[in-house]
Amino acid sequence: xxxxxxxxxxxxxxxxxxxxxxxxxxxxxxxxxxxxxxxxxxxxxxxxxxxxxxxxxxxxxxxxxxxxxxxxxxxxxxxxxxxxxxxxx
Length: 89
Description:
- The chain is elongated, with a radius of gyration of 14 Å.
- Helix 1 (6-22) runs antiparallel to helix 2 (26-43) and helix 2 (26-43) runs parallel beside helix 4 (78-87).
- Helices cover 71% and strands 0% of the residues.
- By secondary structure, it is an all-alpha fold.
- It has one domain.
- The N and C termini lie far apart (34 Å).
């Protein structure tokens, strides 16, 4: 069985956020934002995931605004528009 410590979890979550902002592939960005959205839905209400709400405020919410401001974020591309919709839900 794999046991993930808090430091490893922080690194994994940070990698997902960075990928959501930095990747130029809209399908990959959409996947990253979908994962972050699902984790937020599940973990934000759980007391056992202390520190996750702070992570959302410090990293996930800014990513939702940073990704669409990138020059590679093309609003004329249908895949990119789906990323925008996923990130703002």
